[in-house]
């Protein structure tokens, strides 16, 4: 039969929960005549349990969290500090900075293992609901809240009890112990405290200052020094009460089985059949709660920029959701504590955040999110598209998410203009399209912005380029070569231009022009410009071409255009040809030769009536290099060509490949190949060397 975990917490510091936790472990060991386990999870009082128990921990909770192997008596032994009275102990790191680094998720496996190794595990959970404490509570049979006959302690205990209820921990799971009890205190007595907490007190522990001071001085638990002190007697009485009333067994039976909710919530995303499944019941319940929530809480306050107001709104909304769920018949839908937590989170995310997209946005391995109506959410992970288990409640929730995103950046979307480009607060690019153009409901595509700016070293590590290629591109950028980055959708053009932009010297003035700001250069002297859609009346719009023209009056050393897709290409080429060398842009195309054709076509969009030959002459003199970025069949992204433009031969622009990616085949679904230098030396190298910069010819040789 599995053992039990009791986590002891206090509403505030100074209520004696650490003393009670330690002595409970010793009292249970004595009563059960078997070893108990004592764990210190109190991050705010690092090392207090070492003093209370007199046990100097060899290993700490941090070591347990980082252990990747299995736990049994043999493998656990090195982590334990043992007391002769039958208590094993694992302490908290004494350095608070080290304690903050403990991975709470890593403790889940060990807590499950402890219930198979010990009849009783006592955890000192501290006086704050940290991630570490919450992880302990999730694996506990009982939560023991310690309170003292003090108005502030009672108030803070009531606050914590309400917070636990909001987090959907069962009421019966929380048992209150009154510490420092004095029979003569008639004002703040047991009845008064129970009325304030709206909770019965399990037992009372007598105030015994002399015994507690003595134990701390001698660094031994009160119970270990004497079992006859008032404190020890009431601790023993508490253990006897818990065992006599079978409290732990009753609480263990009340805990519902951990049944995961259906993988597909909406039914429509995985099958075409009708009929209600438990998944549709889940969605229906969410819809009812959300409808009732709108009537009780003013969700418009979430638009405030006041972070404190947002936190208050979220807490109030969470409390309301829990109350509304309590009024619903959730039998067969919410089968466990985890289910309840999950549905509250989903409702809060849909009401106050971006709904089911929140977890995908938080997942660092997900690079792109694609929503196709309410019942289909796809994401890219490891270069592969996958279908998510989660869905939106209905299309209205999809539209709400779109409206939240576009309103934050001053954009709009409606039936007249049913599409929009926007960005999230972290810079992630968003495209949305709605009815009447999107037939299956609102469609959202999010290109996630990396938390940390990638550098050329990362691209080398990923195999996107070699060190020689990176060194050559750095030389080209620093020496003001005009570069066009070519590639298909999702090939990594923006990532590459961000990397190349990092090579620009810090003393140069950079001006960027984008539809939706994504460029993230490390330099300080940078001016970021973004297009503006027209108003409802169709006035006031500012497009990329207008921005490029404005940059010419802003004394730029470098002009970087996020993407050329129209008449702005002509203005960009003219800028490159008139003293703004070192400029960069991206173009949608599949090969360097296709890129040249694409540039010709885009120049014609300007409507200037320029002949094809003149356009080719302009391109050949303005653009020095084309860097081709491609997404291969296995999802990997690589620089496949680094090519130099060598002028016109008749009416054909000469292209010379400097570096190529040579594919050798596919092995276990992964493309095999290597980057090769062709041996051609770029013509502009001699021009650079005449200025005094020596460039090693070894860059253009294969190892």
Structure, explained:
- The chain has 703 residues and is of the alpha/beta class.
- It folds into three domains: 251 residues, 3-Layer(aba) Sandwich (Rossmann fold), CATH 3.40.50.300; 163 residues, Beta-Lactamase (2-Layer Sandwich); 242 residues, Rossmann fold (3-Layer(aba) Sandwich).
- It is 38% helix and 21% strand.
- The strands form three sheets. It has a nine-stranded mixed sheet with strand order 17-16-18-19-15-20-21-22-23, with helices on both faces. The chain has an eight-stranded mixed sheet with strand order 3-4-2-5-1-6-7-8, with helices on both faces.
- Helix 1 packs across helix 12 and helix 15 packs across helix 16.
- About 3% of the residues have low confidence.
Structural key phrases:
703 residues, alpha/beta, Beta-Lactamase, 3 domains, 9-stranded mixed β-sheet, 8-stranded mixed β-sheet, 26 helices, 21% strand
Secondary structure topology:
Layout: E1 4-10, H1 17-32, E2 36-40, H2 48-53, H3 61-65, H4 73-76, E3 81-83, E4 87-90, H5 96-99, H6 108-117, E5 120-126, H7 131-138, E6 142-147, H8 151-166, E7 174-181, H9 190-197, E8 201-206, H10 209-218, H11 222-225, H12 230-244, H13 247-254, H14 278-296, H15 307-326, H16 337-352, H17 357-362, E9 366-372, E10 377-381, E11 384-387, H18 395-408, E12 419-423, E13 429-433, E14 443-447, H19 456-462, H20 467-478, E15 483-487, H21 493-501, E16 510-514, E17 526-530, H22 544-551, E18 558-561, H23 568-577, E19 584-588, H24 592-604, H25 612-622, E20 625-631, E21 637-649, E22 652-667, E23 670-677, H26 684-689
Parallel strand pairs: 1-5, 1-6, 2-4, 2-5, 6-7, 7-8, 15-19, 15-20, 16-17, 16-18, 18-19
Antiparallel strand pairs: 3-4, 9-10, 9-14, 10-11, 12-13, 13-14, 20-21, 21-22, 22-23
Helix pairs in contact: 1-12, 14-15, 14-16, 15-16, 22-23, 23-25, 24-25
